[in-house]
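Feature request, filed as a ticket because there's no other form

It would be nice if the structure record came with a short human-readable summary line next to the C-alpha coordinates. Right now we just get the raw output. Example of a typical job, pasted below so the devs can see what we mean:
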Amino acid sequence: QVQLVESGGGLVQAGGSLRLSCAASGRLFSTYYMGWFRQAPGKERVFIALISGLAYNTYYADSVKGRFTISRDNAKNTAYLQMSSLKPEDTAVYYCAASELMRTNADDFGSWGQGTQVTVST
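Raw output as currently delivered:
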Protein backbone atom coordinates (compact mmCIF):
# COMPACT_ATOMS: atom_id res chain seq x y z
CA GLN A 1 0.00 0.00 0.00
CA VAL A 2 3.08 2.25 0.03
CA GLN A 3 4.05 3.60 -3.37
CA LEU A 4 7.73 4.46 -3.82
CA VAL A 5 9.65 6.39 -6.47
CA GLU A 6 13.45 6.68 -6.50
CA SER A 7 15.39 9.57 -7.97
CA GLY A 8 18.88 11.03 -7.92
CA GLY A 9 20.80 8.37 -9.79
CA GLY A 10 23.34 9.21 -12.44
CA LEU A 11 26.99 9.11 -13.43
CA VAL A 12 29.66 9.96 -10.89
CA GLN A 13 33.44 9.58 -10.77
CA ALA A 14 35.08 7.16 -8.40
CA GLY A 15 35.58 8.84 -5.04
CA GLY A 16 32.63 11.13 -5.59
CA SER A 17 29.28 11.44 -3.86
CA LEU A 18 25.64 11.14 -4.79
CA ARG A 19 22.36 11.37 -2.89
CA LEU A 20 19.39 9.22 -3.77
CA SER A 21 15.83 10.06 -2.77
CA CYS A 22 12.83 7.82 -2.30
CA ALA A 23 9.48 9.59 -2.34
CA ALA A 24 6.65 7.68 -0.72
CA SER A 25 2.92 7.99 -1.00
CA GLY A 26 0.51 6.10 1.17
CA ARG A 27 -0.59 5.89 4.75
CA LEU A 28 1.57 5.57 7.83
CA PHE A 29 4.96 6.22 6.25
CA SER A 30 6.60 6.76 9.64
CA THR A 31 5.59 3.27 10.80
CA TYR A 32 7.65 1.56 8.08
CA TYR A 33 11.25 0.54 8.03
CA MET A 34 12.76 1.91 4.83
CA GLY A 35 15.48 -0.01 3.09
CA TRP A 36 17.84 0.48 0.19
CA PHE A 37 18.95 -2.36 -2.06
CA ARG A 38 21.00 -2.57 -5.21
CA GLN A 39 21.34 -4.93 -8.11
CA ALA A 40 24.28 -5.08 -10.48
CA PRO A 41 23.96 -6.71 -13.92
CA GLY A 42 23.82 -10.47 -13.59
CA LYS A 43 23.74 -10.30 -9.79
CA GLU A 44 21.14 -10.76 -7.08
CA ARG A 45 19.44 -7.82 -5.44
CA VAL A 46 21.26 -7.22 -2.17
CA PHE A 47 20.62 -5.25 0.99
CA ILE A 48 22.67 -2.15 1.64
CA ALA A 49 20.91 -0.04 4.31
CA LEU A 50 17.85 0.12 6.58
CA ILE A 51 16.31 2.77 8.80
CA SER A 52 13.55 2.41 11.38
CA GLY A 53 10.32 4.39 11.25
CA LEU A 54 11.38 7.20 13.57
CA ALA A 55 15.05 7.00 12.55
CA TYR A 56 16.20 5.72 15.93
CA ASN A 57 18.07 2.81 14.35
CA THR A 58 20.05 2.28 11.18
CA TYR A 59 21.70 -0.80 9.69
CA TYR A 60 24.24 -1.16 6.91
CA ALA A 61 25.79 -3.86 4.83
CA ASP A 62 29.51 -4.20 5.45
CA SER A 63 30.20 -3.27 1.85
CA VAL A 64 28.88 0.28 2.36
CA LYS A 65 29.39 0.88 6.08
CA GLY A 66 31.23 4.13 6.68
CA ARG A 67 30.56 5.37 3.16
CA PHE A 68 26.77 5.44 2.85
CA THR A 69 24.27 7.10 5.18
CA ILE A 70 20.56 6.35 5.23
CA SER A 71 18.14 8.96 6.53
CA ARG A 72 14.50 9.96 6.30
CA ASP A 73 12.27 12.98 6.60
CA ASN A 74 8.86 11.76 7.65
CA ALA A 75 7.30 15.20 7.22
CA LYS A 76 8.20 14.92 3.53
CA ASN A 77 7.48 11.18 3.23
CA THR A 78 10.97 10.74 1.84
CA ALA A 79 13.92 8.46 2.53
CA TYR A 80 17.46 9.20 1.40
CA LEU A 81 20.71 7.43 0.73
CA GLN A 82 23.79 9.61 0.86
CA MET A 83 26.64 7.84 -0.93
CA SER A 84 30.23 8.96 -0.55
CA SER A 85 33.63 7.59 -1.56
CA LEU A 86 31.94 5.79 -4.41
CA LYS A 87 33.68 2.90 -6.10
CA PRO A 88 33.12 1.32 -9.51
CA GLU A 89 31.77 -1.75 -7.70
CA ASP A 90 28.92 0.42 -6.42
CA THR A 91 27.55 0.61 -9.96
CA ALA A 92 24.05 -0.85 -9.88
CA VAL A 93 20.38 -0.10 -10.02
CA TYR A 94 19.36 1.17 -6.59
CA TYR A 95 15.95 0.42 -5.14
CA CYS A 96 14.12 1.63 -2.07
CA ALA A 97 11.65 -0.58 -0.26
CA ALA A 98 9.32 -0.54 2.74
CA SER A 99 8.76 -3.16 5.43
CA GLU A 100 6.59 -3.28 8.53
CA LEU A 101 9.35 -5.00 10.50
CA MET A 102 13.13 -4.98 10.67
CA ARG A 103 14.23 -7.07 7.69
CA THR A 104 17.23 -7.23 5.39
CA ASN A 105 16.01 -9.88 2.98
CA ALA A 106 14.52 -8.39 -0.16
CA ASP A 107 11.78 -11.00 -0.19
CA ASP A 108 10.42 -9.60 3.09
CA PHE A 109 9.76 -6.12 1.72
CA GLY A 110 6.28 -5.55 0.42
CA SER A 111 6.65 -2.24 -1.42
CA TRP A 112 9.31 -1.34 -3.99
CA GLY A 113 10.26 1.54 -6.20
CA GLN A 114 11.24 1.07 -9.83
CA GLY A 115 14.92 1.76 -9.26
CA THR A 116 17.43 4.39 -10.28
CA GLN A 117 20.71 3.73 -12.08
CA VAL A 118 23.98 4.68 -10.40
CA THR A 119 27.13 4.41 -12.50
CA VAL A 120 30.55 5.03 -10.99
CA SER A 121 33.25 5.66 -13.56
CA THR A 122 36.94 4.93 -13.27
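Something like this underneath would help us a lot:
The two ends are 40 Å apart (CA to CA).
The chain has a mean pLDDT of 96.
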